[in-house]
Amino acid sequence: MTFAVWFTGLPGSGKTVIAEKAAAILNQHNYHIKILQLDRIRKIITPDPAYSDEERNIVYASLAYMAYLLTESGINVFIDATANKQQYRDIARGLIPNFAEAYIECPLELCIEREVRRKNAYAPPDIYKKSTNKNATVPGVNLAYEAPRNPGIHLNSRENSIEECAKQAAGRIGELFATAQLRCAD
């Protein structure tokens, strides 16, 4: 039985690097993970993003459906995307039987500091600097960020190193989905 985990948190909280490191740990234990990074996918779906509510609805629904198709094909998936509204993540929850949210908690001030240092070819640059622009839509600043109501995995990237968060995520994923596999086998 395959699974999907949505890594969510503010921009700069550590989603991408934690997801990548957790996938590497799980790969060593014969889990094979495909990471869907929204920053990469958005370049195809919306090459000139407006970050409007309508566009976000389309992008997050598309992302959830991609994850569904992969899990239906026997591929475990990590979704790496802020998804500032719970409804975006709930689309995937409704589609994918073995689904969990991994919430990376991190204060906005630290996210801003990290985002300034980030050198990611896919992520839009200077997210937080742009939050001062008229009509800006930056989660956590100009838009509300809705933390998961009941995340299966709760990580704190302020109190724990990225490596520790990745180990915690991998361990919890093993617990969550080993049990799901046992239930399905009965």
TrEMBL record:
<feature type="domain" description="APS kinase">
    <location>
        <begin position="2"/>
        <end position="155"/>
    </location>
</feature>
<dbReference type="InterPro" id="IPR059117">
    <property type="entry name" value="APS_kinase_dom"/>
</dbReference>
<dbReference type="InterPro" id="IPR027417">
    <property type="entry name" value="P-loop_NTPase"/>
</dbReference>
<dbReference type="GO" id="GO:0004020">
    <property type="term" value="F:adenylylsulfate kinase activity"/>
</dbReference>
<keyword id="KW-0808">Transferase</keyword>
<dbReference type="InterPro" id="IPR050512">
    <property type="entry name" value="Sulf_AdTrans/APS_kinase"/>
</dbReference>
<dbReference type="GO" id="GO:0010134">
    <property type="term" value="P:sulfate assimilation via adenylyl sulfate reduction"/>
</dbReference>
<protein>
    <submittedName>
        <fullName>Putative adenylyl-sulfate kinase</fullName>
        <ecNumber>2.7.1.25</ecNumber>
    </submittedName>
</protein>
<dbReference type="Pfam" id="PF01583">
    <property type="entry name" value="APS_kinase"/>
</dbReference>
<dbReference type="GO" id="GO:0005737">
    <property type="term" value="C:cytoplasm"/>
</dbReference>
<dbReference type="GO" id="GO:0004781">
    <property type="term" value="F:sulfate adenylyltransferase (ATP) activity"/>
</dbReference>
<dbReference type="GO" id="GO:0019379">
    <property type="term" value="P:sulfate assimilation, phosphoadenylyl sulfate reduction by phosphoadenylyl-sulfate reductase (thioredoxin)"/>
</dbReference>
<keyword id="KW-0418">Kinase</keyword>
